[in-house]
Amino acid sequence: MSTILIDGRTIAFKPGDNILRAALEADVEIPHFCYHAALDSLGACRLCAVEIKPKNSNEAPRLTMACLEPAKEGLEVSVSAAAAQQVRRHVIELLMINHPHDCPICDEGGECHLQEMTVTCGPPYRRYRGRKRTFTNQDLGPLIHHEMNRCITCYRCTRFYQDYALGNDLGAMRLRNEVYFGRFQDGPLESPFAGNLVEICPTGVFTDALFRQRFARAWDLNTAPSICPHCSVGCNTLPGARDGTLRRVRSRTHPELNRWFICDRGRYGHQYSEHCARLLSPRVSGENTSYHKALNAATTRIKATQNCIGGIGSAREDLEGNTMLQALLNEVGGVFTAFNDPALEAATIAAVSWLQNSAGAPSLIEMEQIDAALIIGDLTAHAPMIDLALRQAYRKGAELTLFHSSPTPLAQFTTSAITVPPREMYAKLSHLCTLINALLAGRDISDDPMAVIAKSLIKARQPLLIGTIETLTATDASVLAKLAITLGPNARLTYALSGPNAYGSALLAPEGNAMQILESVETGKIKTLIVAGNDPFSDPRFGLRWRAACRNLNTLIVLDCILTATAEAADILFPVAAWTERGGTFVNYEGRAQSFLPVFHRPEYLPSAADVIADLAKYLECSRQDVLSVLQDTFPDFQVPAPGTLGSPIPVSLPPISDSPSAGSPLLSSNNSTWQTALMSWYGDETLASFAPGLTSLAPATIAMIEQATATATGIVDGSKIRLRGSADSVVLPVQLNQNIAAGTVGIGRNVLVRLGLGHGDPIELEKVL
Amino acid sequence: METLLTRHLDATTPLNLAAYQAIGGYCSLSAAFDLKPEKIIETVEAADLRGRGGAGFSCGLKWRLRGADAPSPRYLICNLDESEPGTFKDRYLLYGGPHQIIEAVIVSAYALQAERAFIFVRGEYAKGGHSLNQAIQEAETAGLLGSSICGSGFNLQIEVHLSGGRYICGEETAQINAIEGKRPNPRPKIPRPSTHGLWGQPTTTNNVETLVNIPHILLNGADWFRSLGVNGGCGPKLFCVSGKVRHSGLFELPCGTPAGELIFEHAGGLDEGRTLLGFLPGGASTAFLLPEHLDLPMDFDPVAKAGSRLGTGSLIVLDNSTCPVEFTLNLMRFFARESCGFCTPCRDGLPYLAQILTAIASGEGHADDLALLDELCATVASQSFCAFAPGAVMPLISSIQCFHTHYEQHVTNGHCPFDTTTQGERQP
Ligand SMILES: Cc1cc2nc3c(=O)[nH]c(=O)nc-3n(C[C@H](O)[C@H](O)[C@H](O)COP(=O)(O)O)c2cc1C
Ligand code: SF4
Ligand code: SF4
Ligand code: SF4
Ligand code: FES
Known about the structure:
The complex is a heterodimer.
Chain A: E1 2-6, E2 9-13, H1 19-25, E3 49-52, E4 62-65, E5 76-78, H2 82-96, H3 113-121, E6 144-146, H4 156-164, E7 171-173, E8 180-182, H5 197-200, E9 206-208, H6 209-213, E10 222-223, E11 226-227, E12 236-242, E13 245-251, H7 264-268, E14 283-284, E15 287-288, H8 291-304, E16 309-312, H9 319-332, E17 334-337, H10 342-356, H11 364-367, E18 372-376, H12 379-382, H13 384-395, E19 399-404, E20 416-419, H14 425-440, H15 451-459, E21 463-468, H16 474-487, E22 492-496, H17 502-506, H18 513-523, E23 528-532, H19 543-550, E24 555-560, H20 565-568, E25 572-575, E26 584-587, E27 592-596, H21 609-619, H22 627-634, E28 648-649, E29 676-679, H23 693-696, E30 704-707, H24 708-714, E31 721-725, E32 730-738, E33 745-748, H25 750-756, E34 765-769
Parallel strand pairs in A: 1-5, 16-17, 16-23, 18-19, 18-21, 19-20, 21-22, 23-24, 24-25, 29-33, 30-32
Antiparallel strand pairs in A: 1-2, 3-4, 3-5, 6-9, 7-8, 10-12, 11-12, 12-13, 14-15, 14-25, 26-27, 27-28, 30-33, 31-32, 31-34
Helix pairs in contact in A: 8-21, 9-21, 9-22, 10-16, 14-15, 14-16, 18-19
Chain B: H1 17-22, H2 27-33, H3 37-46, H4 59-66, E1 75-80, H5 89-96, H6 98-112, E2 116-121, H7 126-141, E3 157-162, H8 172-179, E4 203-207, H9 208-212, H10 214-220, H11 222-227, E5 236-243, E6 249-254, H12 259-266, E7 276-280, H13 300-305, E8 314-319, H14 324-338, H15 344-361, H16 369-383, H17 388-402, H18 404-413, H19 420-423
Parallel strand pairs in B: 1-2, 1-4, 2-3, 5-8
Antiparallel strand pairs in B: 5-6, 7-8
């Protein structure tokens, strides 16, 4: 490897590196502001001045910007040279001319890059005698606070927001020493990645508005490596807590996953753990009681209903909790599933099985390198950081194709976006598969409208096929996998799964258990149901059935950290620790197991779900009571990774999917209704995050979205009202016409689906309201 | 000397296509199309035509260095942004005769084999831009623009881009950003715009005055062109003279004409009883020259040797009734205002310099302010991102050197020595 010398230290560099990048990667500090590894060099701040030793001793040394100077073999660089120090002193002095010097009351204080640089290389005194320039700040919404006077004009924010995240409502305006970074007018920032401004800005211009409300100095925060619990990507985070409350969440670098960033759901969803609906005391029959008494009550009930027990784990419960519940049920003669929705169970198990029996899912940084993708569904809402990774691929020229039922932000970056009603997704994908086979066999398909898509995927060096499992059936998931197989070994396949541990949970029980448990509860065969971190009552499609069925139960035992509809109905309720208050392991969409540590503890005793179940196992005198040994039994070759590491792969345990996956998909049943539903989601739409008021205040309005042409044919106009009738209820909603929704489809939000008792793709009745 | 570039200019009724053709306009097209592009570039290089936009880089060399094998599409930009204080030559060319510019762009684009050309017009010259557009339409209708011009097989489209109106938009790479619809920040100089310019494609930028020489060089040859200059200069030069002279204005004279001749013969000299304090030779962003430089030929190398720049060839003249500190402050306020805001030394350094200068000019300067100005100027000039800032501090640095006593008087006396309210007489 080639090397350069920085103040006598030998530093290796990669081809194409500049001096600054090479130095920072080798942990050698060269002061800088505008350079950021994700955003590359700009050359604007001029802080990274270094001196280059001339080749011939009769030449003078040369001052240059380290971020713009290519690293060349043998180059001798000095950061400490007097001339370089002088430039840095001047740059800081100039940046400080207008700076408010408000460190003692600035939220950035203590973790401010400008503060650090000023102390390290700035002049000790101010010489400027003039007036300071002042700006008016903007209201950028509930999540980000704006304080423009602190700006040092490094352009990091716009380069991240516009160039990297492809947002368009924040920019640089005006010129000279009045460059203003903000929106065209006041209003919440629209990007799902806006929160990263807080970290990318080297000063206190953009700060976390929620953290500001319950502020603590950075050095007073308890932190520990954590994993985001809000989707299946498994971004690495560094939450901060103080005085027994969680204050904020920041990103923590994972070189193959989220690197420097997280999405706003991950950053602001944490408010669920401070919500007033947070459970803090065990309850038996509605009365607060002690942990010990609750355990006793549960033990008695379980013993009394031996062999008539069911258990529902969860995609948002960690590997430990799910595995413990499954092991406990094995001993007391019960059935386990991790899903309350049989269709989701089938789809997830199918997806994970395809992944386990193929090359496996690409990491986020691998996704950035693909040159073509077929995207099924709304990735922004189901796996926001995968969306951001695909935006990087798009920036490098990847051709993105999208099949979607309802609007999704990624649509604007696609080469072709086709709206497909949920029930026709399978046919569409099968057709594409046929086209690709025909093309590969040398047949001419050019008169087919989807020929361009087929060609784009075939000619790609590395095509990616990706679907959001929550809006797909098992058969959809399988046909996507077959597409990948058809495209050959370079094609990559992956799915956005339904929760942080959906992958891990899917490994624990066979498909069909969810339906078996539901039916057994309905028939009274199951008398005790243990639910860990799940909310079957709020399932859009099956919620109504679960509610009705659970009336037959003797005992409903719920373990959760928030008060869901199911938790409210529990006979015995165990409050458990939130994700920042306990350790555990999540298996992300790639099958990468990542462990996390508790960041802090509350004054109340809040065990993890795994701890509660382990205690139950003790009370029940089960043979296996210890979490680690249960994990070892279930996954014999698996090493639980140390928190803060890159994680380790969960071993392959699912058999390959048989060629004809069970067709029990409810989407295939139909009645005479011409309309079907489509889930309209957004980046804040997730169970835990729905308890985070800051984030949910940005939720889109509750409306029914219909495609223009279908609406015109039925005489529905924009802004008029329609009544929607489902199996549970009917609602009246204002109509919004939109091109980006499939024909014959009514797009509605999750909460409306729950109310109507309908799932994504279910038939729905619709009538105009005059 | 018979004028070449300005002889048919008429700002009230510029020549239309027919009239322009009647006096020999567009003749150079057939001459050009008979030649291989490389041959034209060779001739231009031999003519030693130096860029009139400020830097004085050899036009032929620039064209040759871009390479004949540069990938297509290739672009030509005719720079008519002209925002340098004291400079108004391009305005004469624009308002006086748009067809001369179009002819020049066509043959230059042919030499560079560029299929699309942009004429970037200063925002305040909107009316001129409008007549330029009309002239382009006339030329298109006559088949002088568009596909296979005059049956040559050479295609060219010309577009007029009216600037949003900032000084920095005249800088080559900022201009490229502006045409692309981006913020007009300058771009890094590597990769060069000649290979990675507009939309990443090979792009050549020339000042409009540079280009209008090309048809003449084509028709009359390199030697003839060189012979038009004096004292070692080549070709004609448009000089703007303004400030404390009796007849300020535009003068087309041989490149290399001595400064004294320009000021005292062509511009009518100074008012009665006044003496020359100094002058800027090439627009606001050049260094002061003094009465001792009156014999200096106004050509790129001699002026550079004297420590300044010929720049745009725009002389701004100061006589002994002008306070050089106040004059320099005026320039610094302009430059501080026009900084694009991209890099720290320029964006925050120029207002700082202007602030110190304001204090000195109003008699509130501190004893160590002059040293502070020197210290800051050194960093601003050497550490900024583009050529704007070094140009901006050039008059300040030289002003402090040339008029040091004036500066010291301001600081020690606590007021401006020219101030009549405190001094009675406006005399130094
Ligand atoms: C701050 C700045 C402003 C400039 N403004 C102009 C301008 O208004 N017109 C112009 O022709 N060149 C201007 N230039 C020079 C151009 O960058 C470029 O060098 C020139 O147009 C090249 O043409 P030439 O080689 O024919 O002179 C400017 C340069 C700088 C650094
Ligand atoms: S707001 Fe922050 S990130 Fe943006 S330019 Fe200013 S200091 Fe840099
Ligand atoms: S993408 Fe998913 S895991 Fe990553 S921060 Fe967002 S919600 Fe959390
Ligand atoms: S020197 Fe001035 S004009 Fe040039 S890039 Fe820097 S701020 Fe902009
Ligand atoms: S980091 Fe190099 S100029 Fe800003």
